[in-house]
Amino acid sequence: MLNLSLKEISQALEEKKFTSVELTKFFLNRVKKHNPSLNAFITVDEGKSLAMAENADQLIQSGKKSILTGIPIAQKDIFCADGWKTTCGSKMLDNFISPYDSTVIHKFNNAGAVNLGKTNMDEFAMGSSNETSYFGPVKNPWNLNCVPGGSSGGSAVAVAARLAPAATGTDTGGSIRQPASLCGFTGLKPTYGLVSRYGMIAFASSLDQAGPMAISAEDCALMLDVMTGHDEKDSTSLNRKKENYSNSLDKEIKGLRIGIPKEFFEDGLDSDVQKLIEAALKQYEKLGAKIVDISLPNNYLAIPAYYVIAPAEASSNLSRYDGVRYGYRTKEYDDLMDMYFKTRQEGFGDEVKRRILIGTYVLSAGYFDAYYLKAQKIRRLISNDFKVAYEKCDVIMGPSAPSVAFKSGEKQEDPLAMYLQDIFTISTNLAGLPAMSIPAGFVNNLPVGLQLIGNHFEESKILNVAHIYQQNTDWHLHSPKGID
Amino acid sequence: MSITKEEIIKIAHLARINVSQEEIQQVEKKLVGILALIDKMQEVDTDSIEPMSHALNITQPLREDKVTEKDIRDKSLSLAPHSEQSLFIVPQVIE
pTM here? Predict the structure, then answer.
């Protein structure tokens, strides 16, 4: 059961080689065994998971199975799931039992998938190392002294260490792709608006997007088939015809034009990582693709603009945590104001407070034009760069992250160094483009990810391009040693 | 642009977050660094550029105002730190 693809698991369930209950127990046991050292899960509820597995087995028995029926999926703890503790990695929501399902959870439930548990993450998805979680840091299974990346670090480790066949993540500035790169598996951030944000705890609403995290592009496509679709409950959900993402994986890529932005290979990129990315591009050339030089001249402004827009939206979104309706409330207080101030001082961690303060500052009277409006204009410039680039190429490729996984604690006290982790991923969030990270080799036994960026709605194309690479290489099939 | 201690106290007040005297030095140091990073934006001329608030130019959709969800009032109230008679209880505000 350990290294099967989702398609293979699905087939084995169909052919009654094992039941969903057996499969779910198998992964629950792996979680039980390895979570103490990896800390990938915040909440595991065997009773609930097994009840879902029993239901799935009944569906399978009665021939009402769809592709993910009976397959356990690890869910990032940012997705509200009815009856499950949903913390978003924060003390603020440590006691929050969600009273409803997010659309993503609802869709997995409808597909008959099993919720394997809620995975650890940076607090309110703010971080690139999974060290800001109130529930402790997550460890990288390739080297326990290293970070897994973030913010979807728990989901990343669940997939990389094979504690779950697949997982969900969210990506506001790189939170699916950077951990996919650092932990060595396949992750996809869809076009903004493709997956409903309803019930997904909000960080920066104009950037947040959920996506699949799994071993292969094929697995991601099957997950995406379930996750996407228009949702009236999310006003930014796109109203367009639902696509099938697993139908066109095998298309030939002969003649594909791969755009290489020179800005992705300038300072800041580790030279060993660069070599592997170049080797992957050579491989694509062998498969019939053509390399085209392109430029994203405003990419260097992506981090500055992001650290205005994301904190501004976060400061507004996180104003709801006031100790009145749900979540944490301070123990002692004199009056209402005192209650607000202490609740938020004690309930939020340092990074979250920093971002709320930055957001409040850039939106405050007298600074709005200089910061927020300016950042929105720069966002336009960055988006225009991609428009120009896609006149010359079909997909854009480059590194997902500037380096392999770094040591725990190394960047924790230096927010600026941490923010640079997302230098290659943030611009696609600002432009709303779909992008993936796929394994492309190892430096010192630590994985390196190749990033594939598509034009709007070209998930099928990047999945196809990734799949063809994975048919010709086996980097995505490597798994860390010592996690038996 | 840089930020002063007084400004931090002001925005912390606006954000309803207590920042203790011990914390303020650290907060100042880190916010100054982040704002310096952000200030790179000011080098670019954006006068003729239209601000972009959404990745795709969609308009806000409208839908009929009808009840689609089941009633989860009691379940929701049970999550409150303090509720009585279907009301959220907070410290007294009006005399």
Answer: 0.97
